[in-house]
Amino acid sequence: MVDRRFAILAVCTANICRSPLMEILLKAQLDSSRFEVASAGVRGWDRRPMDSMAAMEAMRLGHEADSFRSHPIDSYLVDSADLILTATRAHRSDVLSMTPQALRRQLHPRRVRGPDRARRRCRSHRARRPGCPAP
C-alpha cells in the first residue's frame, strides 16, 4: 500500500517571485517520497518563467530555477493541499474567497515564526515610531 504524500501549496500574487522560491526551497529540504510541493498565484500567469531577480536568489542559494513555470491558482490545487502557505494576508483572503473550507489548512509565514517574536518586533517598531497603532 502506498501512502499519500503530504501536499503543500505556496501562494503569492503572480507565482513568479515569492511562491516559486518557497516551492524550490521546500522541495530541496523535504523528502519527495513523503511531501509534494507546488505553488500558484492568485492573479498568476500561466507558464511564465520565474522573475529574473527571484531566479538569481534561488541560484545564490544553490538551486536551479530554469525549469520553473508559473501557474494560476485553481480550486483543484487548493482542495488537494494539506497545507497552504500564503505570502501575505491578502493572498490568504483570496484563497478563502475561492474555497472557504481551506481555512484550517492555511498558514501565513508570520505565524510560522511564532507570536512572541512578532510581538517583540511590533513593540520595537512602535518604540522607533511613536504613534504607530498596536496590532
Topology:
Blueprint: E1 6-12, H1 18-29, E2 35-41, H2 52-60, H3 75-80, E3 83-86, H4 89-98, E4 106-107, H5 109-113, H6 115-128
Parallel strand pairs: 1-2, 1-3, 3-4
How would you portray this structure in words?
It is a single chain. The chain is an alpha/beta fold and 135 residues long. The protein has a single domain, classed as Rossmann fold, CATH 3.40.50. Helices cover 41% and strands 15% of the residues. The chain has six helices and four strands. It has helices spanning 18-29, 52-60, 75-80, 89-98, 109-113, 115-128; strands at 6-12, 35-41, 83-86, 106-107. A four-stranded parallel beta sheet has the order 2-1-3-4. Strand 1, helix 1 and strand 2 form a beta-alpha-beta unit. Helix 1 packs parallel to helix 2 (52-60). The radius of gyration is 17 Å and the shape is globular. The model is unreliable at 112-119, 121-126 and 131-135 (pLDDT under 50).
Helix content: 40-55%
Largest sheet: 4 strands, parallel
Which superfamily, in CATH terms, is the homologous superfamily? Answer: Response regulator
Structural class: alpha/beta
Counting DSSP E segments of at least 2 residues, the number of strands comes to 4
